[in-house]
Structure formats: C-alpha cells, structure tokens
Write a structure and sequence with these properties.
Residues 87-160 form the MIP18 family-like domain. This is Fe-S cluster assembly factor HCF101, chloroplastic. The protein contains 16 helices and 26 strands. The chain is of the alpha/beta class. It folds into 4 domains: 15-76, no CATH class; 83-164, 2-Layer Sandwich (GMP Synthetase, Chain A, domain 3); 186-433, 3-Layer(aba) Sandwich (Rossmann fold), CATH 3.40.50.300; 437-522, 2-Layer Sandwich (NE0471 N-terminal domain-like). Helix 3 (83-94) crosses helix 4 (138-150). It binds adenosine-5'-diphosphate. The site of adenosine-5'-diphosphate (ADP) has 17 residues, from helix 5 and helix 12.
Length: 537
Amino acid sequence: MQLLQVGPTFPKTPFLISKSSPNGGVVGILSSKKLSLLYDTNHSLASSHRHERCKWASLNQSISSSISTKAASVDAGAPAISPVTAEKDVLAALSEIIDPDFGTDIVSCGFVKDMNIDESMGEVSFRLELTTPACPVKDMFEEKANEVVAKLPWVKNVNVTMSAQPAKPVFAEQVPMGLRTISNIVAVSSCKGGVGKSTVAVNLAFTLAGMGARVGIFDADVYGPSLPTMVSPENRLLEMNPEKRTIIPVDYLGVKLVSFGFAGEGRAIMRGPMVSGVINQLLTTAEWGELDYLVIDMPPGTGDIHLTLCQVVPLSAAVIVTTPQKLSFIDVAKGVRMFSKLKVPCIAVVENMCHFDADGKRHYPFGRGSGSQVVEQFGIPHLFDLPIRPTLSASGDSGIPEVVADPQGEVSKTFQELGVCVVQQCAKIRQQVSTAVTYDKSIKAIRVKVPDSDDEFLLHPATVRRNDRSAQSVDEWTGEQKLKYNDVPEDIEPEDIRPMGNYAVSIDWPDGFCQIAPYDQLQTIERLVDVPQPAPV
Ligand code: ADP
C-alpha cells in the first residue's frame, strides 16, 4: 500500500478537470470557463486594478497548464487477458492509492467512474470523481492513477479524466431550497469586532476560488457590512428576479457575493423584512447556483442572530478569528462553545495581527499564545498566524483582496494553507457525516460512529424505532408513550438512513415512518453487546 503525502504548500493546479489529448497534451475544461470569466471581468475593470487581477488570473493559468498525463509504455508482447481479469487488475492497481484525508483507497472511496477497458488494444480509460474541485492532492491522484495502471503488463495506454462531484449538501432534503446546491458552508466567526474576521473571510473565499472551487461569500453583518469596501465589482447592487422572487448575487472575479451593503437604499428587498429575518431572506433567496464553498462572514459575537443563522443554515464548519491578546481567549472560548452546542465543528483558529517585522527583528506587540491556548484547550487542530501588514489593511480598503493583489506574498501563503485545511476538513466532515450511521445487514444492526469522537457502537433496529421521541410516538403534553412496545416488530429493518447535518440522522422504516434520531439520543440507547455474527454463506 502506498500513502500519498499532502504537502503543506499551495496546490499546484487550481482547475480540476483535465483531459489528455491523443498526443499526451492536456486540455482544461473547467479552467477555460472560469478563466474567461476572470478575463471578461478584467477587461471591464478600471486600469489601476487590471494589472493586479491579471496577475492573479495568469498565475492560475500557468498553474493549470502544468497538469500532465502520462502515457503508458507500449509493450508489444502483452499477454491476452479476459475483460473480467482486466477490470480486476485495474481496480487492484488503483486501490494502492490511498486518500490521505479519508485513510481509504480511492476505489473504496468510490472515486473511480466510467471505467472503459479495451483489453485487446491494451487501452484503459476512467474518470476520478473527487469530492471537491479544490482537492489539494488531485494532481497526485492523477499522476499516481496513470502510473499504477500503466505498470500493468497488458496496458499500453491510460486515459485519466479528473472531475468533481456535483455541488450539494450531504443532507439536501432538510436544507432551505436556495441552499440545496451548496456543498459546504463555512462560518468565519469572531467574538469581537475589529479583529480581522471579514479580512479572513474574504481572503479565504478568494483563495478557495483560486484553488478551482466555485465560491460565494455571504456577509451576515446587517449593521456594519464590510464586504462592499473589500471587493470592487463592476455592478455593486443586488438585483431582484421578479418572476422567481430571488436575489441575484453580485459577481467579482467569479465569486458570488451577497451583502446587505449591496442592497442599496430604498430597494424592494430592504423594505419588508428590514429587521428580523433579513439575513435569512438574503441568504436563502439568493441565486447561489452550484457552489463548492459558501463562506459566511458572521456578525461579531455569539448572540441570537448567530443561533438563528445556525438553525437556518446547515453550517459544515467554523473558522475562528482572534487576536493574540490574553483577553481574546475568553471571547474565543465563548465562540467555540456556541459552535460546539450547535454541533458545528471548529476546524481552525486564525490568530490575526500577531507580529510585525522591523529593524531586522520580529515584534509581538500583543504578546503571544492565546491562539495556541485555544488549540490546546479545545482540541482544534489547526492554528494560522497572520502578521500586521499595512498591505492587508490597504487591500481591504482598495477593494482588491490581498490574495488577489499579491498571490505569491507571505500572507497569501498562509491563506493557501488555510484554504487547504478548509478543503480537507470539509471533505473529512462530509465523509464522517455520511458514514456516521449505517445499517449492517449482515449482522442486522445499526452501526453508529459518533462524528468527532472515537465512539462506535451497534444498536438493535427495533430498539432505535421504539426510542423515537416524536409526537407520533410520545404525547407532547403528557409525555405518555403512544408507540407501544409490540407495535414495532422485533425484526424491523431500516430502509434508508440519511445524515441531517452533524447532529442527527433520519431513518426511513418500512411502515413509511421517517424517524429523526439525534446522535445525543442514539448515544443513550441500550447498545448491542453480544453482536450477532453474520450467517455463514
Ligand atoms: P472585523 O471583521 O473583525 O470587524 P476587519 O476584517 O473589518 O475586522 O478588519 C478591521 C480593520 O483591520 C480593517 O481596516 C482591516 O483592513 C484591518 N486589518 C485586519 N487584519 C489586518 C492585519 N493583519 N494587518 C493590518 N490590518 C489589518
């Protein structure tokens, strides 16, 4: 078995879909669309901004053209092989490639699609469908897949195509309509204002876009929206689609933006729901289209607005922004606790304005260590430091995010590492959530792996069904048990189990009942200890 290494550096290819041409060259598919978008935008921009954007776009283009597909060496004396053996050979070879995030081989991960083998000609083609177009190890997957299949003695030519799964949440049915084509929603949060939360949110979003992902930013700060000063789209007003009653986001360099600051005074969308519900309305009625990542710039604090937002929106993960002062630790702890209650995993802490360099020395004006204290105490695995940089402040005010203005600078490198972390953690969370509760037919037991914990146990399906706490099973007012023990057959089996965010699963039973079972509740149910063994075949 071979383990792929993930480098800490920025992924080399921002555009995912590549196809080898007959002569072994590479044709970008996704890239051309996205690049033309970038260039179209560039052409219409003020000349002072043009240079910066072109730099960003051309960096992406040069990176994308570095993708290469290896052709297998021709072996004239290749042995004859049956179609079944040929497919087995290819799958066995591909299963040597391990996804470093999931710890599972790419065949078991279900990445291999559209396998086409002409064993008489020694030709093999297949597609690797990854979970995100911004996968930081996609180049390695492509290269390794070519290499391991080309090594098979009967193979003369390998054609690997890379693609990404269509954007959708893991648990689409429970999500408001407008958000059903978004794969991951990442909250960028801080407990105090002025710590650089919006700066981090915007630069993270443009970093993810630079990695090849389809990205949106939602600025959830109704009272002090900062997104409008940090970007410079040509059209700065949200449009209404009167027929569909939806809001069309503002577009800047291919990233979709929605902010109260783009609503424009006196516009229809501001009148009715001015006070309550405005955030939810903006967020859920926006025409986001397919997005791999929606970055939400949360308002500062941990108040009601956060709870409402977290209830409406299925947040995949949160990134916490803080400054190094000792007092910040207390605030950050509050934020981590809030997300933990809402079952939203905090995947990274960004400690902003940590240091600056002057007179050949590094200075830490606010002291050191509150970020690492958060990481240690709350077990958040990733900490990123950002320096105090006049350019970061200036780029925020000039309307060009730092990662666009200076894509190869020190700050952009930190954002690239943060971007890789977000991509990897979101993929892991999706995987964990979708495999957290499964039905093992061979032992007639429901297997529960609690997300973010090592706890794994088995439950008897009938016991799970009997423990339903919904109004159909328990009287809401009196607490009287309506569902009787014998109402549930001992041998009942679930028909389907689907995750609902990070907190619950929905289970379909053969009698048509759909049970919502929170993990907290599953953890309290009597577990199967004497696990029935699978019947001998
Ligand atoms: P928040 O969203 O937490 O209120 P902002 O991102 O709006 O904070 O940042 C507040 C101000 O600080 C902005 O003017 C921004 O440009 C500036 N700023 C943020 N981070 C840095 C940094 N690392 N170096 C210099 N200025 C920064």
